[in-house]
Amino acid sequence: MLSTTGAHLGGKCGYVWAGTGFACFVLAFFFLPEMKDRSYREIDILFKRKVPARKWKRTAVDINDDE
Q: Which sequence ranges are marked TM in the entry (predicted)?
């Protein structure tokens, strides 16, 4: 991307990395669940219930109520 025989972007190469970083941030925000203060058992239950990643924080889980 920086060479004269390639895309010859030079300093504008940062825009490519910024765009890629922003896309990764958006995907991570919507598709990676929040696991703070959750036990492994609770996380397992949420995955089995197929709860969307954005709703993990507000979903109440009873550990005794697994299967």
A: 15-32
